[in-house]
Amino acid sequence: MDRRSLLRATVAGAGGLALPFTAWPAAYAAPAQNATGPYGPLQAADANGIQLPAGFTSRVIARSRQVVPGTSYVWHDAPDGGAVIPNGTGWVYVSNAETTPANGGGASRIVFDANGNVTAASRILSGTNNNCAGGKTPWNTWLSCEEISLGRVWETYPLGGTAVVRPAMGRFKHEAAAADPVRKVVYLTEDESDGRFYRFVPATWGNLATGTLQVFKAGTATSGSFTWQTVPDPDGSPTATRYQVAGSKVFNGGEGCHYADDRVWFTTKGDNRVWQVNLTTNTYELAYDANLVSPGSAPLTGVDNVTGSSSGDLYVAEDGGTMDICLITPDDRISVFLRVNGQSASELTGPAFTPAGNRLYFSSQRGTSGSSSGGITYCVTGPFRT
Hints:
Elements: H1 3-12, E1 33-34, E2 50-51, E3 57-63, E4 79-86, E5 90-97, E6 106-113, E7 118-126, E8 131-136, E9 142-146, E10 153-156, E11 164-165, E12 174-180, E13 185-190, E14 197-204, E15 207-217, E16 224-225, E17 227-230, E18 254-260, E19 263-268, E20 273-278, E21 283-289, E22 303-308, E23 314-318, E24 324-328, E25 333-340, E26 348-353, E27 359-364, E28 376-381
Parallel strand pairs: 1-25
Antiparallel strand pairs: 2-25, 3-28, 4-5, 5-6, 6-7, 8-9, 9-10, 10-11, 12-13, 13-14, 14-15, 15-17, 16-21, 18-19, 19-20, 20-21, 22-23, 23-24, 24-25, 26-27, 27-28
């Protein structure tokens, strides 16, 4: 069975999951190289200043400090990490606010019907500090992560319920989270120049109140084998979690994180890399390194948030660079999928696909103004590969 046939069979059998998990059995044997994208070249910028391949369109969903059209809710500043949660009749897009409690830190949601029309919007988390990225869970919650020293993970309930802090998941400068329903763990990145990569092993899968925090332990090379070791003191005080286990591997500025089919990918902004961890063989390697791209210059710099599509493509958003979302295919090819013009003082955040895979949501955190109050959240629709 070829890769794409296996993918379809896997997704078809995953109907009970909150969102389709992707099968990438032969993905990323070497760092990705420049190639023409599967959708062809970018077209001229549209009315929103976004360059897209032929057949794709964009629309503005919400703007910071403005009412979300079709609702009475004012969208938050500095939209960052996001995800799509199915709700039975349509879906919910959740988005973090990477700002202080005084400026509305926390997370919000926008509710859509089956046709992609906005039906409601509201706050799901308040009073938290610089919630950067996070991750969805198979039980339809959103883990919103504080990117501050001794930051916390908050479990929020986009389909209804009160947010709860999850201190057992560690106190450190949290960035992203990715749930693994096979091993029943949650992977966590740390946004420090000498950060680490973690996993949280809940005492009971589906309940993140208690469990064990472990750290990735490996050599200094860019590939090899690894193990997990328990962090003795997850509250990170007086000794930071990243310094508690000798031999834990250093990663330069952990950012986005995505799990699919026995692999987890995460990005490190300090060295412009995308890492792949094979959870079946307990090995790791580079899926992308800006210093190892040819021919020509690296299309992806300022690597940040990441998500995957049902076709097995990885979408990586830029913080800076040329304000692109780049696409890495399972056969190790990288190209620019979209480019946002006129917003060079911003960053692209929160990419997430709908369950059907035909809509991609994302935000420009500071928009055209370069200020946190100028954030814009978009939706791109088109013939995405399935």
